[in-house]
Design brief:
The protein is built from eleven helices and 15 strands. With 303 residues, the chain is an alpha/beta fold. The relative contact order is 0.14.
Length: 303
């Protein structure tokens, strides 16, 4: 697999405190990589090191299979970023703001109208930025980061402070970029529900350490369902299931089964009925991704 970003033992220490410790981050090409963690977990510090804005205490950063320390300028030419709040000239229009940046980047003028169309700000081309909503300003920030057609886009908490419609706009924009523009995206957030709707792979950081890194599907698998049975004698029903090799737990007068297949559940119910138990209720208990995230970050490991 080709990794656009690959860090090894990436560590940043401030005095005796570790902001990031031994971080191995791997971002596959073409993915939307959700970088998740509570506020203060080390996300922004990591991003600053990936952008060469902060020097690691120890460890290495490889981007596009190149060492960031040795080939920093070449790497940064192919990265677009929106870290914290984008900065603008409020008295200038959207076009004029992008034009001032375009001259520095030395890209063709037609690129301004292209990026404004990508972020759906064409109608606001000649409007002054001081009249923009927060969502429009964030989208203009992304337009600026796309001017030089980057291969990697790094967005640090891009939905912070946005209203629900602004969040939906941002989400839809981010989702379209990899397929349409052959781009890899790193998006950091402390909101699991947000990442769950955008990302294809996930890295979770807690207290500076990576505690989970895999596809979003693998993370969803952790949200395994329990089937809860309410029966007339939970203790005996539980023992009856165990005797037949069916995994179950007896808790607070209810029988919990971690069973994924409909057929397996049907067999367990049939077994109990044949053994003379009365079944009052069968229900499904799902563990949300939010529960998993909280359990991971509070303990600093998978539960």
């Amino acid at each position: 697999m080709e990794y656009i970003v690959d860090t090894k033992k990436l560590t940043k220490r401030f005095g005796k405190e570790y902001a990031v410790k031994d971080l191995d981050m791997k971002i596959p090409k073409g993915e939307v990589y959700g970088f998740l963690g509570p506020n203060g977990a080390g996300k922004t510090t990591t991003i600053r090191m990936l952008l060469g804005l902060m020097k690691p205490t120890t460890g290495t950063v490889s981007v596009f299979n190149k060492n960031l320390q040795k080939e920093k300028i070449e790497i940064l030419r192919k990265i677009g970023s929106l870290v914290e709040n984008p900065s603008y000239y409020p008295h200038l229009t959207a076009y004029e703001n992008l034009e001032s940046l375009r001259k520095i980047l030395d890209v063709p003028k037609k690129r301004i109208s292209e990026v404004l169309e990508i972020v759906r700000l064409t109608n606001a081309t000649n409007k002054k930025v001081k009249g923009f909503s927060l969502g429009m300003k964030q989208r203009l920030g992304i337009a600026a980061s796309l001017l030089h057609q980057p291969d990697l886009l790094i967005l640090d908490e891009p939905t912070n402070g946005l209203d629900p419609s602004g969040i939906i706009e941002m989400r839809n924009l981010i989702k379209q970029l990899p397929a349409e523009y052959d781009m890899t995206i790193l998006i950091s957030s402390h909101l699991l529900a947000e990442i769950d709707q955008i990302a294809t792979s996930v890295g979770i950081i807690s207290k500076g350490k990576m505690i989970f890194q895999d596809s979003i599907e693998e993370m969803r698998k952790l949200a395994q369902q329990n089937v809860i049975l309410k029966v007339n004698d939970s203790e005996k029903a539980w023992q009856s299931l165990l005797a037949k090799g069916i995994q179950a737990e007896n808790k607070e007068g209810l029988v919990y089964m971690r069973e994924q297949s409909d057929q397996g559940i049907a067999n367990a119910v049939r077994t109990l009925v044949q053994d003379g138990f009365s079944i009052y209720r069968v229900e499904e208990e799902k563990r949300s991704l939010e529960d998993i995230f909280l359990s991971m970050t509070s303990e600093g490991k998978l539960q």
